[in-house]
Write a structure and sequence with these properties.
Elements (H helix, E strand, L loop, with lengths): L1 H17 L4 H25 L9 H14 L1
Length: 71
Amino acid sequence: QREEFADILMSVYSAAIEYGYSPEELTHFSMNKFRRRWICFEAKVIERQIDLQSLDYDAKRSLWDEAKREC
């Protein structure tokens, strides 16, 4: 399974280059987007005084989806 994931990553890397994108720039773009969403997610947790450890996966996912839509 590990090798298959490595193959997928290499395919995405190759496709990015094929389409004229810099994989490094795309990685930075993706990480910045994640950071924005994470900051928004954390703000919602703090604002609503949520105990993350008490939430199940679906509740966390719902909160994350909300952060994705709003931030």
